[in-house]
Amino acid sequence: MTARPRAHRRLQSAERRPAIDFVPHRPPMLCIDTVAEETADSVVCHAAVRADWALLDGGVLRPLALIELVAQACAVYVGVKASREGKPPQVGMLVGCREAEFLTDGVAIGDELTIAVHRVFGQVQVAAFTGAVSRAGAVIARVHLSVVSADVALAGFALESEP
Hints:
Layout: E1 8-10, E2 17-18, E3 34-39, E4 42-48, E5 60-61, H1 66-84, E6 92-102, E7 107-108, E8 112-122, E9 126-135, E10 138-149, H2 150-161
Antiparallel strand pairs: 1-3, 2-3, 3-4, 4-8, 5-7, 6-10, 8-9, 9-10
């Protein structure tokens, strides 16, 4: 038996959807601009580094901040899945960064970035993702993240707090 290929949907420029439709983030903290591709296990997003980003340090986006871009792309992935089910965007929490590799010293205002994330395992409530950030076709960061929905995290906190 051969495996069926996974449905892959590359959106045309006119079809690209604003990331703000899928996440609870708002500017200046929201960095992702659009959703360009989506599959059952992944999304590809685009972002243009703007001077109003809260993550800038002296007018430069430092490599460590690329973890946040990958985390926001994970949030977009979860938001796209929720949208398909008629649900609103969900608040999530980054609970771990298992591995990160940075191949740049920084990113300048005006740079165009592509952020791709792939769900490795888990469900919408708790999941692990791999992510890559690219600039001009070259990968500048690779990140492995674990995320959890805020509802799950708060439920666990409430259980720990009970006597």
